[in-house]
Amino acid sequence: MKYLYLQLIALGLCTAVATNDLVQPLICLEELGLRIVNGSPAQPKQIPYQVGLILDIGEDTYWCGGSLISNYYVVTAGHCAKGASKIIVILGANDIDNPYEVGQIRITVYAAGITVHENYDEATLKNDIALIRLPEPVVYNDYIKNIKLPKLLGPHDSYAGKMAQISGWGKTSSLASGITNILRYADVCVQPNFICDIEYLGAITASNICTHSILLKATCNGDSGGPLAYYVDDHYELIGIVSFGFVLGCDLGWSSGFTPDDLVQPLICLGELGLRIINGSPAQPKQIPYQVGLILDIGEGDNFCGGALISNYYVLTAARCVKYVNQVIVILGANDITNSNEVGQIRITVLASGITVHEYYNEATHENDIALIQLPEPVVYNDYIKNIQLPKLLGPYYSYAADIARISGWGKTSILSPGLTNILRYADVCVQPNFICEIEYLGAITASNICTHSLLLKATCDGDTGGPLAYFAGDHYELIGIASFDFILGCELGWSSGFTRVTSFVEWIYLKTGIAYF
């Protein structure tokens, strides 16, 4: 574990302390009692979000902790992951000495799957946070589950005076010869940052959170990157990532320092996206089997839009695509839309009578920008053609803010492109809070929209309208948006892309088609 270097000095405090400052530690002491002295061994399944990390850095191997925050992501400390060429991620473990333990799995992640905060400072440990992306999504079970993050939009608590839980396989004392093999945990008190700031001679910032060690409970070597978890309502939330401790020892009563989880949400998006998706990526055949291409006959020529296959009879798209069409050629199973003889690709003609535009679609505002295309015969599913699920009819519904979702289509790859791309492309983008999109679009956004931001200039463009915004929900993709609008001056200027929010229309879809998920 890295520590802030401190000299041990006597701190003479002459400042008068308000009475209430003494109350919070007392509350913690009353809750903690003596039962947590030296911590407690965890039981299997007790802390299913706990992660162990074996890190290859140069010629040495290190140990850190981490937290599983989704089926794809582990969050840890920046000082753990910085410079790592390879990490063995251990999930579902209680005894790390036993790789054959029931419930335990080990996954190798290479440097390309590691994202350290771009402003991480090794000297001060500021922005001490990193993400590890697993190569495949893990399946949740009794031994492996994610821990929730605090809400993106708050309100955010300081947690001062509240109980939280630390856990890990770190040393149980400064004199211990190595880390412990059995996972341990302890309940600790979060203290006001000003106390921690005194102890660490002004080195604490608002982006730290500290716990005090009145009962000599603290994190130690090997616990870095592990969770500080707060129990709220019926679940734990991750409020801190173990960052630093006192340089002279972890059992001398000094505070432990953590990186707060406020930094995680934006980093998740950047970590997922990386630079690899600039200009998107070409899809492989069979990769996005729910993707639909639409050639639209609108009198004076053909236009092109995207769509999503939601059943063997129905395609969902944007109303603006099909409002005035005479007929639509629906392309299914395609990767190369210029090759109608491509393996797996089929084309079906649908007349205007097979199209249902939302009855309250507003061309001026793009409200209710949703439509259904009914195929004349049911399609047969295969490796190239499959439906995408809808969100559940009865909810609960999420905003998806700060979640990763996938856009796909044959739209232009830049505003200067002469036309569509022939090969299907996709990009992973960040869903952003509607209020940000509303600022960009001068108040024109409603609750039935969903937006994605383009920090890395990823957006839908001409020809992508009507196409899917898909969210990976554990073991399948769900359709959460339909491409609706973009910035009028260009689709690669960093403006948000706007979508019709599918959760706002699952009842309408059910009434028109009978399709629903419960």
From TrEMBL:
CDD domains: Tryp_SPc (cd00190). PANTHER family: TRYPTASE-RELATED. It holds the Pfam family Trypsin. Gene3D superfamilies: Trypsin-like serine proteases. It comes from Lucilia cuprina. SMART domains: Tryp_SPc. Residues 1-19 form the signal peptide. Belongs to the peptidase S1 family. CLIP subfamily. Keywords: Disulfide bond, Signal. Residues 36-259, 277-514 form the Peptidase S1 domain. This is Peptidase S1 domain-containing protein.
